[in-house]
Protein 1
Amino acid sequence: MKKILTAVLVVSLAVLMMAGCKKADSSDSSAASQGGQESSQANSEATGTKKLEKGQKLIIGTNAEFPPFEYVKANGVIGEFDGVDMAIAKEIGERLGMEVEISNMDFNSLIPALDSDRIDCALAGMTITEERLLEADFSDPYYTAIQAIVVPASDETTQKVEDLAGKKVGVVTGYTGALTMKDATFDVTLEHYTKGVDGAADLRNGRIDALIIDKPVAETFLGDDNDLKIITDQKYFEDEKFGIAVKKGETEVVKQLNEVLKAMTEDGTIDKIILDYVGVVSGE
């Protein structure tokens, strides 16, 4: 009798344990399925479904240390911000029916800010490069630039980039000049700056021998200063294309920006803005 009861109890417990396991497995499977749905939704949102909506705020990141493209002044075209890119940003906002807000930050913080959705796009004289295309998407180009060498007016030895061998050269961290010079095949000491204007000041004071920066920016820094001069080396520095950076995968935003930029190019707005701030149209 005891054996029969014992056997019945063992069978009953086994049945209960199996039922419990099935319930737990079902619950775990449901949770996993739900987690998979959330992940899929997140991936879906990252594939380019975001759009710039009329009536909403358009947050544009920049680095306002790059005249004549972006800089700070008392009365800029957007609050305290002025320059080629800021005028383009204002026009884009007006054509999309959006309120533009500028978020000023270090140049190297712009792409991380896109990744974390703190800004909608970055308009900061940013050259479209293969390296950056791995981290962000870009609009069609709106400006063609080239790097320049800035040296003291008394320097008669520097005619091309290779003449900087053995010298101390200033570059701005994250800018194309810095990216290009780090791969130089000759010996050169690079002095890194976060602001081009600081590099120009050190050049005037003799702390560095030369400064590598975009030609229009170099011309702005020089102004009427006869103590410095600009040298171009088109054999070493290739033409660069500026574009508006957006978060990787935001294809709809890129499409919207391209449509506006195309219209601004066709009606002459882009050339007028560049002419107003740079003095010549893009690529000249």
Protein 2
Amino acid sequence: MRDTSLSYALTELLEDAADRLLAGDILGTADPRNIAAAIDEFCNRRLNSPVKQCLYAGFSVGASFGLELADSRQVFMKVHKLTGPETITANSKQSLTASSTVQKHLAESGFPCPEVLIMPEEFGAGIVTVDAYATPGEQQDAHDPLIRRAMAESLAELIERARPYRSLPGLNPGAFCASRTLYPVPHNALFDFDKAYKDSDWIDAIARSAKDEIDANRSNYNLVLGHVDWSAKHFRFENGKVAMIYDWDSLKLEDELHLLGLAAATFPTNWDIPVVITPSQEESAWFVREYEAARGIPFTTQELAVISAAATYVMSYVARCELAINPNNERYEGSFREALQTMKGNRFIAW
């Protein structure tokens, strides 16, 4: 019989050097027994039931665990590292509480996001959030026009539904396009942008040009509350419609044009199913137009230019992340590096 315990799942996962680095950075330890024991103690104390089995475990920006408890409830725990406002993943107890508050209201009003079970609280040196483990429908390829349109329309719906909560104390302004340096602080410990790579200069040149255009258009901000990682890896679908959206610590205050550029550049990205992770230039343009139709107000020519610059900039950032873990330009086919290097024109979205 297969061992489904949390300790066993962590032991297997932490055989990977990258996961060990991330676990140590987020949790302060990469010892699977210590991690499993801390999670079991928390579930006993706060949910009145020990962990029965592990449904999912993964490390990225946070440490995430899908768990079935002994009383048959299924929960999703995510441990967040506390980070400063200069990072794109800026997290504090106050900001995570604000995000969970909005998520709770969204879920209760029928928007497809998990139920919040426990508001954010301390867990070791970090903060833990606990939601229902909700897995309706299935993951889908966002290159399908029906799925792409559903994602674009859902983003417009989210921004409209979240409008009343924009002044909630603790919400962090998105920092992706706001850094004074060429790139913001990378989103996890795997990426080091200070190292020189032989193929980084051309990526940096594209990023710098796009960021110059973004910086030149900062006087017309339309600050909205939205999800800054609107990519297919966080979605499940049923009958062509969005059934569930995850990763609500990505709820940030951000300029609408920058937010849309981020989404248009990364909406197909998913490493869990066999899909091309980058959009084509035409697909990104269609995503923006579908969002625009759902928004109900057309963009000006200048606004479209800023959206395209933001999309190009985020693709440069992801390309640099790829280069950090593939310093000899490995895994090039289908990558953001390839998408940037082969794009027509000097911006990814052409109008």
Protein 3
Amino acid sequence: MVPENILNAYQASVEKYKKDEVIFEENDNAHHYFQIHQGQVKMNNYNENGKEFIQGIFYAGDSFGEPPLFADIKYPAAAVALEDSLIYKLSKPKLINLLEEQPKVHFHITERLSKRLFYKSLMASEISSEEPEHRIVSLLHFLKKHVHHLKDHEEFEVDLKRQQIADLTGLRVETVIRACKNLEKKNKIRIIKRKIFF
């Protein structure tokens, strides 16, 4: 998102996080901008019954946790490394200075945040009203277009486990497994050696 040479120029540090290490907790105050140099991060929280809901999964080049930073509110979810990761960390005052001095970067961050808001709105609608197969296909369409930047006719390997798909769509993993088998029968996805292709 923010070019690494610019992050370095504004004195961002690079922090190491081990797999499953917490980067920040739900309800922590937001004081830093985070951007992944290497690895994967999920933002998640749990309902009263202990079911995990994944708010998002972020990859190398992605930033995460900005809305609370800009809105001066607490994090609504935790951030956890899904694998060993290297993450840029920039203090809020330095980020504000960067945005004031780098309008193209400012615009790019605004654009990315708008896409995330679109995804949240889409998934909120899907989770509240749509059938499991439809929810899964909507998620896969979003990943194809907005994460992998592919056209409709291009196929990609879905790099999510069944449990992660369940946590992103508000479904049980057993429901995801059944729905994926049905989608395969309808030729909407391909499953090869347990990997989903869409």
Protein 4
Amino acid sequence: MKHLLLILLAGAVFAACHESDHSNSDDTPISPNSDGLHVIDGKFVADAAGNKLVLRGVNMGSAFADGFGMAEIPEIEKTGANAVRLVLQRQYDNSGTGTMTAAQIEPLITSCIDKGMVPVLELHDYTGTSDVSGSLGQATAWWTSGDMKPMLLKYQKSIIINIANEPDDGSATSDTYSAANMDAVRNLRAAGYSCPLMIDAPGWGKDPEFFVQHGKELMDADPLHNLILSVHTYWPTTGAFGNYSDAQITAYLNNLGSSGLPIVLGEIAAIDDQDTNGIKPINYKLIMRLCQQNQLGYLVWWWGFATPAGSNNAESMTPDGAYSGLLGTGKIMAVTDANSIKNTAQRAVGLK
């Protein structure tokens, strides 16, 4: 799981977005429009044609893969996924010296778009931070930096920006977490980003109740009302970090489904590999079924790597990065379950 990797590696009707020739030069927000991804009815993501788009796809650990995962994207396409959450890091290699650039990220974006999959861009550097305000400020600075912003503005109608992955270790108060995310949203809007912005839940992304209680105030703080609220469901039945019964999981997801907010499960997995007492199973089939019942999106953590093979772990859906290599729970989640990606995903209209 990504926490371990980091340790080891040291709506109102709204808009998305104009192409580069519409990008602003004076840092005022681009006007809302409906020619790309946007939130409708305050609850659902819609594509350029106004069709409801329930995100169904996978996470791809681009920051940890040779070639940043370009070889894996065509394999992910074979699942029928309509979205890929791309794991980005400012410093991406084991030595801490590799700096991920806009030129390296752009081919990932265009490859996903060409294959009908929404690129969800997430910044991974601040996972589990104890300083959410400072960390989100730094994340915002990266998204608006000199080479990154002009490149991303070209693809606004087709991308989602996940401001920062799990930017809280559980120590932030609700008020602090809300305020930090509101500031980040306002600053990104002021910089010209009108595409959907994704916010992870606090407590390593795992707290679903935060959005039920505070989601509306987050949406109201966005001048374009174009947010997606993301929960990561590392909820094992028994574990060192919490015990989640089927009844509790059902209540969580039903509450999220009835919240009237645009909710996605940005990471679901079959296991929790962060438990101090060993790998613990998660009732992922129940989670997938409840997502389908409540029309909640989900993105599986995570696709496997072609190379380096050593980057694969117990959560990898395929050990060689290939669709033909899907096995076990990875194949179930991607293909064979009634609520799998293959059986439930619908591609977006108008990404190109």
